[in-house]
Design goal:
Rossmann fold; alpha/beta; 8 helices; elongated; single chain; disordered N terminus; 10-stranded mixed beta sheet
Amino acid sequence: MFKVYSNVLALVEMPSIKRILFPVDFSERCAQTAPVVAAWARHFQAKVTLLHALELPPGVGDDFSGALYTTLEPEIHKAAEERLAAFAGQHFGSDPVTRVVEAGGAGEQVVERARKDHTSLIMMPTHGHGAFRRFLTGSVTAKVLHDAHCPVWTAAHSVSGHSRRAAKLQSILCAVDLDSSAVALIRWAARLAKKHEAALKVIHVMPAVDETSRNRGERAVRQFWSTRASAGMTAILKQAGRPKTELMLHGGDIATTLAAAVAQQKADLLLIGRGHIKKNLGRLRTHSMSIVCKSPCPVLSV
């Protein structure tokens, strides 16, 4: 019989979102995301920090180019600060923001700044240029999802259509597994939904189940796993204090199935938990990257 674990994570209650970190690379996708960041900041009365990372240009490293860059670095840094100030004025207006320009790798700088500032939420697009040009290949996003200790809001596709509803989400879809993190994640999602007065639905994807097969044996296996998952999720929802929350059970590839469910439900936000592994690697992003890249709406990874 399925066992509901009581040692839930430190997510039992959604922490107050007081500090938002927004990495800025001056791309069009970043400009599209800015209104969403501003809306969330106003909704939660949170402080916003804009971070621009200055990575070393390609080829810098030999004695001559390194010395030349060192000579020009103050001017490069000053130009970046001026550009970041203009970005803040254009997209945040009179809203107070903190602007930071740091030299170094984008992923490392995001994680380190979030740690220093005790950031509550990182919000970033996953497709850009410059320091964040590798988002879709996973290098920067994977670094942040793997190492950041706070929730991460990401969007792989255009968020311009979500900007108007960003301050008051209407529909949230929370994806959970049958493990000890599910209870805490559902409670976290419920508090977020309450804050936005949004509808909340919970979905569980059974990756080993093929919903399209008509084979009698596979249909029997599908029924067995569906019954088991339904019993487990019912117990989880009850322990989370959300027994009446609408539950969706689907089988198939996790990222593809979630993307289809988001589209069908017209969800404004997909909430997922980041996987864990009890080895030296610690936090593991598991399916997070593929979910982010395929989801038609922003993903909040907790």
